[in-house]
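Milestone M4 deliverable, item 7.
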Amino acid sequence: MTSYSSSGNGSINPGSGGFRRRAKRIVYDFDDSVMYRNSKSENPFSATRKRRFTQMIRASDYVLAGNAFLKDEVRPVNPNVEVLPTTIDQDRYPLKDYTLPGRG
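Output delivered:
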């Protein structure tokens, strides 16, 4: 197994020279909107998160997205993307309601 250095904050920097040289293929698998801030944030958009996400997607040979929304976010940057849905039983573990009282 090859290890990769991170940018110091726990994330891998795909722009670093060693990242691409050490990997024969890069498959990026994600199932959360990592390119956005927390959904409870007033402004979910983050230029830094979007830039880092785009760098990783560009560096990847193939991307596995957890749903169609995520696939649509990837497709403009990397056409080699498919949906691999979550294996969580959503009837047993329903989505949590994050609606704030009074914001219906």
